[in-house]
Design a protein that fits this description.
- The chain is mainly alpha-helical.
- The protein has a domain of 93 residues.
- The chain has 18 helices and no strands.
- Helix 10 runs antiparallel to helix 11, helix 11 runs antiparallel to helix 12 and helix 13 crosses helix 14.
- It is flat and about 75 Å long.
- The N and C termini lie far apart (73 Å).
- It comes from Ambispora gerdemannii.
- InterPro entries: Mitotic_Regulator, Sel1-like, TPR-like_helical_dom_sf.
């Protein structure tokens, strides 16, 4: 029993020092699972002991909710998890505000229950204490007019507040708001800037390369704005961010924001490819096959082709005119 008590104390201490800053309960759940596995503890024993504490603190109550939601040492039970999150939230435990709102929202989706008032109430509570995810959710609520009067200016304000607090999740929505002038004036420079940051810092790279190019062609940047975007990409390229390297290569290849330079384009494509970027690898193969920006090298091109998972027809097209 003493061992389990000690493990639980370690978990609570670990949570207070590290995990309480995580806003999404899924992130907290993953950290707890990894922590238990790393220390080779018995999750069932910890959950049982946690549940049997007579005078539970608000942290204990919140942790039980996490265990119940993600099935850590017990079966997964979202309704039971919600009851513990709700109790912790009513005790004034701020990390529980967002979790409570989120699960009330799930109840709406899964059981067609009308919890809109509770969802909005707890997301607003989370936003009011500075929760970045809470701010984003309140922004979405006002932008969509979910059970409130639609207010794009207020929605933009919430998203901008999350951005100012350091939320990487805010980059993509703020980019769209600036692009289409929703709740704010159209600003294509900021739309491009935050779209790039969304890809590099937020990891939202899917389909974003084409969107950025469209915006770059639509926008007449002044020199300072163009240099700001270029320097940002260059900074993260030197930090070995493969998407930044890929896009810096694109700028050099197309002469966008910088003088066209195929050698530098190849250099950054190659760096990105060796960092695991499949799109960059395809571009490197094209350059090697055609001898653009580097010496023509069919042997290396074929070697890289053997490692790629690009569609065969696409790759055959690259080779067809050069074999």
């Amino acid at each position: 029993m003493a061992d389990v008590e000690q493990q639980l104390e370690q978990l609570v201490l670990n949570f207070e020092l590290e995990l309480s800053s995580l806003e999404d309960n899924q992130d907290v759940g993953c950290h707890i699972v990894n922590w238990i596995a790393h220390n080779q503890y018995d999750a069932t024993n910890i959950f049982t002991h946690l549940s049997n504490i007579k005078n539970k603190t608000r942290i204990h109550t919140y942790l039980i909710g996490i265990f119940c939601e993600f099935g850590i040492g017990t079966s997964s039970h979202s309704t039971l998890a919600l009851s513990y999150y709700y109790e912790a939230a009513q005790m004034g435990y701020e990390p529980a505000y967002y979790s409570t709102a989120k699960l009330f929202g799930y109840q709406d989706e899964l059981h067609s229950k009308t919890n809109a008032e509770q969802v909005i109430f707890w997301y607003k509570k989370a936003a009011d204490v500075g929760s970045m995810d809470g701010l984003l959710q309140m922004g979405a609520i006002y932008l969509e007019g979910y059970k409130v009067e639609k207010d794009e200016i207020k929605g933009f304000s919430y998203i901008q507040n999350a951005l100012n607090r350091g939320s990487t999740k805010a980059f993509l929505p703020i980019s769209n708001l600036y692009r289409y002038g929703i709740g704010t004036a159209v600003d294509l420079y900021l739309a491009v800037y935050y779209l790039i940051r969304s890809a590099i810092e937020g990891g939202n790279t899917r389909g974003v390369e084409f969107k950025i190019f469209i915006l770059l062609y639509e926008t007449n940047f002044d020199r300072a704005q163009g240099q700001c975007i270029f320097k940002y990409l260059e900074e993260f390229s030197f930090k070995n961010n493969s998407f930044a390297q890929l896009f810096l290569g694109n700028l050099y290849r197309n002469g966008l924001l910088v003088k066209q330079n195929f050698q530098k384009a190849y250099f950054w494509y190659r760096k990105s490819a060796y960092g695991g970027n499949g799109e960059a690898r395809t571009k490197v193969i094209k350059f090697l096959v055609s001898g653009t920006g580097t010496m023509k090298d069919m042997h290396l091109a074929i070697k890289l082709f053997a490692r790629t998972n690009c569609p065969t027809l696409k790759m055959q097209k690259i080779f067809s005119n050069h074999i």
